[in-house]
Every structure is written in C-alpha cells, then in structure tokens.
Amino acid sequence: MSLPDWSELVKKDFPEMGPVTQKTLLAIAKHRHRCRGGMRIFTGRIWQDEEFEKRRRRVLSTPLP
C-alpha cells in the first residue's frame, strides 16, 4: 500500500464542520486535551453560532466615531 504524496494531502479540502451547537461544545469540553488551536479552545471558551451572530450584529451596528 502506498501513501499519497504530501502535496496531494495539502490540496485536499477539509470537510465542513457544521454549526457550533451545545453538543459540539460538550464534545470539545470532554476532549479538549486533543483539540489543537488557541487557548480559547483548550479552555472551552467557545461561542455557539447564535451567540457569535448576536455579538456580531451588535458590534457591526455600533457607530464609528
């Protein structure tokens, strides 16, 4: 069995993660030692999609000086 060349692996698309829900947050909290990324993920400080959109709308509606 031959392994694919590394350049082919780099070009490969990642699957869609889907929306971040409470179920996703619980899975991350349970397996946070396996998650790669920033300290926010490791410590479980992640927003659900609806929380993020709510904050995003509030920030974008704030007038600039």
Q: What's the SSE blueprint?
A:
Blueprint: H1 6-11, H2 22-30, H3 39-42, H4 49-61
Your description of this structure?
The chain has helices spanning 6-11, 22-30, 39-42, 49-61. The protein has a domain at 18-61. It is extended and about 60 Å long. The N and C termini lie far apart (62 Å). The model has no long low-confidence stretch (mean pLDDT 78). With 65 residues, it is mainly α.
Short summary:
The chain has helices spanning 6-11, 22-30, 39-42, 49-61. By secondary structure, the protein is mainly α. The radius of gyration is 17 Å and the shape is extended.
Key terms:
65 residues, mainly alpha, extended, 4 helices
Helix content: 40-55%
Order of helices and strands: HHHH
Shape label: extended
How many H/I helical runs? 4
Q: Spans of 5+ residues with little confidence (pLDDT < 50)?
A: none
Strand content: under 5%
Q: What is the averaged pLDDT score? A: 78
Tally of DSSP β-strands = 0
For the termini, the CA-CA separation is 62 Å
User: Which structural class do you get from the secondary structure elements?
Assistant: mainly alpha
Q: Kindly provide the radius of gyration, computed on alpha-carbon positions and rounded to a whole number of angstroms.
A: 17 Å
Largest sheet: none
